[in-house]
User: What shape does this take?
Amino acid sequence: MVDRTDVRAAMTADAAAVESVAAAAWDHDYPAVLNRERPGEAARDWYDAEKLRRDIEDPAHVVRVAERGDRIVGFVHAFAAATDTEDRSEGSILRLYVHPDAREEGVGSRLLDATREALAERGCDRVRAMVLAANEAGRAFYEACGFAETDETGTTVIDGEPYDEVVFVDERRS
Assistant: This one.
């Protein structure tokens, strides 16, 4: 079977489709994690189309979509930031989701590879990814893609409630 998935830079016209993929992914992945009947509704708060349009246009952000035909089936949102440590720049993957109907087909890995490349072009030799601690599938994904879980943790707030996050790192050393 030939994979007909294209990974490309997101356009502002993709914002609503990205929001829809996020909602489907949250409904699939987080019902046992989030204290909300429909997690996808919370996702829509996080992936507001207007904010996403601004991020797509911001050169510090990397937003890529995976597209099959005329359907967006996944997306990744990252940004590049200069750091003061070890004279390097760091990229952070904020979100990477694949629609549940398109999983286990390499879409997430292709999005991640495209993001690593885009961040490397911006001078990043270290990439971080934050994942909800309870998101076992997300954690396994980053480990399978060569990221290492760190001791660093964080907290994110969804619907006014705190959730633990873990940090994964992929370092590129010249």
